[in-house]
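Please review this one:
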Amino acid sequence: PLLHTGHKFYGNMDYYFVGNGHKNAGISDSYFRLNYKSKNESVFSLTFHQFFAPVTIANSTFGYSANLGQEADILFQKKLNKFAHITGGYSFYITTPTLLMLKNISNASKIQHWFWLGINITPTILKLKFTP
């Protein structure tokens, strides 16, 4: 896509956004999101995704379900001062045999984890005031 919105719709772990790594099976993402913003401008978000293939997955040796797995994303943001805030998140994905077959992965862990942390600094370098 021209403007990246993959994390908004497909979770933070990029299982489905980057390339087509699931054999054109398609993706259906049902998700539930909770957001909380405190008085001191801290933000907390929890999102749970349930991924399904909208088509029947056929294989000659084993019948696969349409369930492609579940992902949970936990995000936070804490304002440190006027110019800086800290952000972070933790995500985990619970894989299924169908997902592993579609992505052609035979020895993956059942649960995949990802953690990130960042500090955003946005100073005001030049401030001008114009009066008409």
Remarks:
- Residues 97-102 form the longest helix (6 residues).
- The beta strands are 28-37, 43-52, 67-79, 84-94, 111-121.
- The mean pLDDT is 86.
